[in-house]
Specification:
Structural class: alpha+beta
Radius of gyration: 21 Å
Strand order of the largest sheet: 1-2-3-4
Number of helices: 2
Largest sheet: 4 strands, antiparallel
Oligomer: single chain
Order of helices and strands: HHEEEE
Distance between the termini: 73 Å
Length: about 110
């Protein structure tokens, strides 16, 4: 009997640890995008306009976040920037860099 209790306790402990690990990992691209937008906005003080790319990285996620840097009137002349944001496996922002700056009305060439 004590042997069964000990085995049950070890199994329950392993299950709890496994569920804790999976709960702390970023679940998918939607959650990664949300976390990247929130974290970047807090760091740079500019509002995220949207996400233009999300992809898996070796140890987490790489997200391209479009940010309104300089609002202007008319809105088509506002300056936006795309930032590449890297998240670790837990969804924590590890680094970012601005990769592009452009006018809202400009088209990609």
């Amino acid at each position: 009997m004590p042997e069964q209790r000990e085995r049950h306790t070890r199994t329950a402990t392993k299950s709890a640890a496994a569920s804790k690990r999976s709960a702390s990992r970023t679940k998918g691209p939607e959650e990664a995008a949300r976390r990247a937008c929130r974290g970047l906005s807090r760091l740079i003080g500019h509002r995220a306009e949207g996400v233009s790319a999300v992809r898996r990285a070796e140890e987490g996620w790489r997200v391209h976040v479009d940010v309104l840097e300089v609002p202007r009137i008319p809105d088509t002349t506002s300056l936006l920037a795309t930032y590449e944001v890297e998240l670790d496996g837990k969804g924590e922002l590890t680094q970012y860099r601005r990769i592009r700056r452009y006018r809202r009305g400009a088209s990609d060439d």
